[in-house]
Amino acid sequence: MPNPVAVVTGASKGIGRAVALRLATTHDIVALARSDEELESLAQQIERGGGSCRPRVVDITNPKAVASALAGIHADVLVNNAGVGTLKPFMELTRDEWTQMVNVNFNALYDVTRALLPSMIARKSGHVVNIGSIAGRSAFAGGACYAATKHAVVAFSECLMLELRDSGIKVSVVNPGSVATSFSSAADASWKLSPDNVALVVQRVIDTPPNMLVHSVEVRTLTVPKKKE
């Protein structure tokens, strides 16, 4: 019997790569990202471990490219992970920076999810996991656009869950706190969650009984940044 298929966006690094590596033990992976070299490295790592990975180099803000990359893919799991963030005061934020965050963090959810949902609905089975952020329920200076997109992810996830649960499809949102990835330029990331910490939560959210849905999870580090003396 073939393995179920998991599609992961932003899979070349950080949380997305960690999710792809964890799910590769039980799923055939379709990995989406813009970096050809990093995707190929991921595919080789998964295949060395006995798994299967189909890399798809695609800009998820391009609807036609998304439709082409996902044509014929019948996903059992979709992890919408791709995200970008430019954190600065609103009056310093350029229109291009605003548009990029909205397109990657939120608008792409439409195209990727819309491409894969029809086959899930037809089979009355599937799981959509959206990677949000604790910024999706809180505000902070410098996060006018980024936090707004994550609030949108939370609302989208809950609305989609209410629409799809009678169709046998699960929708979850995982909201991490600070994670040690290239997303942050902090000099000391030792206190933060690792990408694999978040991937473990995603794996456990997916690995639930058919009649059970974990819709929303917030995951934080137990440690705090060290105070400067």
Structure notes:
The protein is α/β, with parallel strands linked by helices and 229 residues long. The chain has a single domain (5-219), classed as NAD(P)-binding Rossmann-like Domain (Rossmann fold, 3-Layer(aba) Sandwich), CATH 3.40.50.720. 40% of the residues lie in helices and 17% in strands.
Average predicted confidence as pLDDT: 94
Number of domains: 1
**How would you write the strand order of the largest sheet?**
3-2-1-4-5-6-7
CATH A-level architecture? 3-Layer(aba) Sandwich
Strand content: 15-25%
State the CATH class: Alpha Beta
Percent helix among the residues?
A: 25-40%
Distance between the termini: 59 Å
Provide a count of the helices.
6
Radius of gyration: 17 Å
What is the makeup of the main sheet? Answer: 7 strands, parallel
- Low-confidence spans: pLDDT under 50, at least 5 residues? none
Order of helices and strands: EHEHEHEHEHEHE
Annotation keywords:
229 residues, Rossmann fold, seven-stranded parallel sheet, alpha/beta
Question: What's the short version?
Answer:
The protein is an alpha/beta fold. It has a single domain (5-219), classed as Rossmann fold (3-Layer(aba) Sandwich).
Secondary-structure topology with pairs:
Blueprint lengths: L4 E5 L4 H10 L4 E6 L2 H13 L4 E5 L5 H8 L6 E4 L14 H29 L2 E6 L14 H19 L4 E8 L18 H12 L9 E4 L10
Parallel strand pairs: 1-2, 1-4, 2-3, 4-5, 5-6, 6-7
